[in-house]
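[recover] target loaded
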């Protein structure tokens, strides 16, 4: 057995994802586990299809085992997202290879860029730029250009390279023996609306919401769609109820973002207006979306800092069962969130929190779903 892991959102699963899974097989992987964001995704939004629907599509198209990346990690910046996912992969105790896409396509170039980033983050130049109000990405780019050649800063400028570097950093920080393997990204870029054969998730989601045919780019699903617009008033209402100090306790609301969001929500009459009033050169749109959603869901800095207390399995096929047979899990793993909640105090706290978020997500469908589904849902099992 050679077990590969893929960190994913599958929002929705598309043929670019299948391309990565196929490349991992070509590289020698006999079994593949996907760590997939649950019902909330890293761009600060709701997943268009629920986590079990997306897990099923992944299993039908190359993945063997799908485990959930909880919202407290999936709604973090690239660093936290990567660290949470790599922690789960490492906790399985049987993964040999971490496969991911990148614009670079070369591990050596990504490792060089990773070292450059680590150096730049500890320079006075970077700290000064942040104090002057530069956003994290902008300050990092400017510092890189100060100390390194243009080719290194170009590597960092690409979104999938940025995430790839965070995967490498997480593997290194955790001391994992898992080998990184990267595939050069093909097709449309991140959030690109072009209709390449490997269209972006953003482009496909627009087609789904518009009722357009997207079968050339992704497996078609007839599952109901969740839309954050259905929660718009609820989000604004919850944020208006928060005190100024509550915003400061939210994940990634440091350096004045919490105060700015607090003021903006008192003027905004829509989510779009809230984002417009809050966003600046310092605070990127993605960061503001994540902060707003964290405020709505109650994801604080302390919750985000918690290590995973369990591995929640969403689905598997026959090879997935073989992965679990080979696993030397460092934390409990199960298909039942209810069973996992009974394994420790930390697991009970995390499971109850994730289930409450699932109840909120259930209201984002055209026909709202009942509460408690996270504790009663059956895993996807394919032969």
């Amino acid at each position: 057995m050679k077990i590969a892991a893929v960190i994913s959102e599958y929002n929705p699963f598309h043929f670019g994802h299948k391309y990565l899974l196929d490349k991992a097989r070509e590289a020698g992987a006999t079994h593949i586990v996907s760590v997939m964001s649950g019902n909330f995704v890293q761009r600060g939004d709701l997943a268009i299809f629920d986590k079990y629907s997306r897990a099923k599509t992944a299993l039908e198209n190359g993945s063997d085992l799908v485990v959930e990346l909880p919202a407290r990690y999936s709604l973090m910046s690239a660093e936290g997202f990567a660290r949470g996912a790599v922690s789960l992969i490492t906790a399985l105790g049987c993964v040999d290879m971490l496969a991911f896409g990148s614009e670079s396509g070369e591990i050596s170039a990504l490792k060089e860029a990773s070292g450059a980033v680590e150096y730049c983050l500890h320079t006075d130049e970077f700290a000064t730029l942040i104090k002057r109000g530069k956003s994290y990405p902008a300050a990092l780019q400017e510092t890189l250009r100060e100390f390194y050649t243009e080719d290194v800063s170009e590597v960092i400028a690409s979104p999938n390279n940025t995430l790839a570097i965070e995967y490498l950093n997480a593997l290194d920080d955790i001391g994992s023996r898992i080998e990184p393997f990267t595939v050069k990204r093909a097709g449309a870029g991140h959030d690109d609306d072009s209709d390449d054969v490997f269209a972006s998730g953003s482009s496909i989601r627009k087609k789904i919401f518009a009722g357009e045919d997207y079968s050339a780019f992704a497996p078609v699903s007839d599952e109901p769609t969740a839309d954050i617009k259905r929660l718009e008033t609820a989000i604004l209402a919850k944020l208006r109820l928060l005190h100024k100090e509550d915003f400061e306790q939210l994940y990634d609301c440091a350096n004045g973002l919490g105060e700015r969001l607090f003021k903006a929500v008192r003027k905004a009459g829509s989510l779009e207006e809230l984002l417009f009033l809050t966003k600046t050169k310092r605070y990127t749109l993605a960061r503001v979306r994540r902060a707003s959603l964290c405020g709505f869901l109650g994801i604080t800095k302390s919750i985000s800092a918690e290590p995973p207390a369990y591995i929640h399995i969403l689905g598997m096929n026959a090879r997935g069962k073989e992965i679990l047979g080979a696993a030397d899990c460092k934390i409990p793993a199960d298909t039942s969130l209810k069973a996992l909640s009974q394994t420790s105090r930390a697991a009970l706290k995390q499971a109850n929190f994730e289930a409450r978020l699932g109840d909120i997500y259930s209201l984002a469908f055209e026909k709202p779903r009942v509460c408690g589904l996270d504790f009663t849902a059956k895993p996807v099992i394919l032969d």
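[recover] notes: Residues 345-361 form the longest helix (17 residues).
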